[in-house]
Amino acid sequence: MGKEIICKSCGASFDEALVRCPYCGSGHLPAEENEHMQNLEDIRQDLQEYEKENVKKPGKKLAAALLIALLVIAAIVWFVVSGIWSASSRERDKSEQRKDDFLKNQGISTQVEESNR
Ligand SMILES: [Zn+2]
């Protein structure tokens, strides 16, 4: 229990922790302020607990971030692989074309041979 204070309205003494005078009901400012500050402190502690919970359990956020990262990596891999595939197939077409040109220049084109049969 805190010290007794004198009510400004009725002159009765009551515990300073009380928000209102128990005799006349008039507000006791320091206690009201304390109560208000206590409420603010409770809210602040709730927020801290909430933040702690979020730090402790990043579960959903982390899973979402990992999923996004995985999708990005999959997309990059797909682009790279399809790029290599199309590039190598283009390269194969080019070398086939070069081989055909070479064979034509040598007079032994596969197409000519086929038409001669
Ligand atoms: Zn009073």
Based on Cα principal axes, name the global outline.
Answer: rod-shaped
Overall pLDDT: 81
Q: What about the largest sheet?
A: 2 strands, antiparallel
Low-confidence stretches: none
- Counting helices, strands and paired strands, the structural category is mainly alpha
Adjacency order of strands in the biggest sheet: 1-2
Please report the total strand number as a whole number: 2
The tally of domains stands at 2
> Approximately how much helix is present in the residues?
over 70%
Give the end-to-end Cα distance, rounded to a whole number of Å: 117 Å
Order of helices and strands: EEHHH
Rounded radius of gyration (Å):
42 Å
How much strand? 5-15%
Number of helices: 3
Bound molecules: zinc ion
Brief write-up:
The protein has three helices and two strands. It is mostly helical.
What would you note in describing this structure?
The protein has 117 residues and is mainly α. It has two domains: 1-57, no CATH class; 59-117, no CATH class. It is built from three helices and two strands; from the N terminus they run E-E-H-H-H. It has helices at 29-56, 59-105, 110-116; strands spanning 4-6, 13-15. It has a two-stranded antiparallel ribbon. The longest helix is centred in the last third of the chain and has 47 residues, at 59-105. Bound molecules: zinc ion. The site of zinc ion (ZN) has 8 residues, from loops.
Topology:
Elements: E1 4-6, E2 13-15, H1 29-56, H2 59-105, H3 110-116
Antiparallel strand pairs: 1-2
This protein binds zinc ion.
